[in-house]
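Cross-posted from the bioinformatics board.
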Amino acid sequence: MTTVGILQIAIFLGLILLCTKPLGSFMARVFDGERTFLHPVLRWLETLTYKVAGVKEDVEQKWTHYAASLLSFSIFGFVILYALQRLQGVLPLNPQGFGAAQVSPDQAFNVATSFVTNTNWQWYAGEATMSYFVQMAGLAVQNFASAAAGMAVAIALVRGFARQEKKTIGNFWVDTTRATIYVLLPISILGALFFVSQGVVQNLVPYTEATTVEGAKQVIAQGPVASQEAIKQLGTNGGGFFNANSAHPFENPTPLSNLFAMLLIFLIPAALTHTFGKMVGDTRQGWAIFAAMAVMFLIGVFVCYGFEQSGNPNLAKLGLQTNATAGQSGGNMEGKEVRFGIANSALFATVTTDASCGAVNSMHDSYTPIGGLVPIFNMMTGEVIFGGVGAGLYGILLYCILAVFIAGLMVGRTPEYLGKKIEQKEVKMAMLAVIATAFSILFFTALSSVIPFPEKGYWNPPGAAINNLNNSGAHGFSEILYAYTSGTANNGSAFAGITVNTPWYDLTIGLAMWIGRFLFLIPLLAAAGNLVAKKRVAATAGTFPTHGPLFVGLLVGTVFIVGALTFIPALSLGPIVEHYLMHAGNTF
Amino acid sequence: MWQQLLPGLRIKLFMTLVLGILYPLAITGISQVFFPHQANGSLITENGKVIGSQLIGQSFALPEYFHSRPSNAGANGYDATASGGFNQGPTSKKLVDRVAAAVERFHAENPGHSGPIPADLVTGSASGLDPHISPDAARAQAGRVAKLRGAPLARVNELIAQFTETPDLGVLGEPRVNVLLLDLELNRRFPMQSSSSPK
């Protein structure tokens, strides 16, 4: 690790820290329906949205109605996106002439699921598959919608703690609309223009034909990239316009655009911890969560950076420079871009999997075993290290419930969090979410590791599901494990060597995405519905304070223990054994 | 119940119009006015013909040019409609064999080089379109290029120094050399003496 590398990580976290309070306070005002400085400019769009949608702004919903609205919002999004893909051949803005042939029904199902659940897993290469119209009006719209829905659910859960003896937890349509209009859209507009200034393309012209210096023909893919890039990062979506995602020079041309992209990813999740603190009337509670997240972030980033910088001994043996010097980055440069080097690649890989973003600026498949374990483990925690927009906050609140429950067991008291008694219903709902996601990851991984198919059959033309791997041995298993972890955690990044555009993978990863999104969200909304009816009891001398370092430690411990106990066996079969094989000089 | 569900369809259609059509068109319009060069791909033209983009790497096979990194974009590399990396894991035999072959080729082309090889020069990038190599990777090729172009080595090294981009704002990212821009300048300063065929 280099001093400059460590300095860049510090700068990044420092900037996030600076933005947390102002944006967090702003969002608290937005979701409480108070006037902000943006209301004179944007209030008309908000009221117009309610009029078009047929929504009454001041009518609140019980948790069941809130959940039903969320499902309706997601299902209509799914239907529209599925249709747009299959019909792209007859729709406008399609200079490369893509059609239904590029997107089969199972593939369209997978993409529609992927973008509706904020996963943005991609079996396809954007520049060879999707028309500009599908990218703009289909994929990018879902980038806004799924992010706004995540924020709405987080706010609903926070209201469960903040209010007492109530029945309603807010109005889904109002929360989603406000999240979109006052938070996502303004920042996306500024972000998109900044990206363009750095070199991200934004046009609707056909691909450019160039004759290279040596006289070869090079066709350069174009498109309305910057407008999608901004919301892709800000909404922790992560679905690239191009196949190479944020490693592509047209999506992420400079180290400055790279820093900006990473800031956009963590911006809202970090600020929501402060929004939470504001809404429950005790900002220390928010900062405690921020601290726990920051600790886990730093552990991950330095483990990943350290192992990537030490490089691959099997390549070092061939005479490669693996130490960083003034004139080159050293380390494991396979699958990384020169402008980002080791530090910014490791940092981005950690950030994108801490959050549920899934954009990549380097190819995780080519990471060293332990460097690649960090992204997998981050996703296995349920992405609560800042996490997805909204998803990070409701995920960490789930762990807060578990943490105070464990603490309560130790001292023999009914646990409380923010003055609400945590009882059977809340703990059951939290565990349902944890178990459903763990089951999805481990069951599908196990199944794909063994399931046979006839070659050239419908379900998986390459034959057995393991024939789709680009790597053999332990790393091949890691590719499968990564795929279902990424799908279930709604991340969307990949160990991309695996070929997943077959009906088997499209459907099982699609199912994993539905499970990971809705069997996580709905139990938490149920818990919110239960909590909102409870009284807040006053803190006494016996109350376990949830804003101090002891709670931060307990929370970090809970996240690691739940993650570790559930997944260590699977990780041992993949990255951990591969680490030892690599150092023993074995290749496959 | 329909009262809870129907807004889903209406709001999605409205969002498609505002966020899916008006927003990207507005960004496109503003970008085309204020940042036309960047918005259209930072293209480089010579004599009215597009020869590439300064952000997109190209394949250089002739020994008189500085070479880019190995690429897995498309069948022959640097296909800007097929971005992507090799996606070979750290214990992949394909990876080790591929890098070993690249190392061997490097030594054959640059017999004067001693010491370790800059890692970026023989490993594949993430996008397959990486426009840069590290300054060390450029210097490692300087001897070959200078000799074949009949230029003094010191002048070629000066050129590398001139085309080395320093980290953004002094700290962000890595020092790097844009291969296409460097090779174009090379052609202007030290034109090729005789045509040679790609290896």
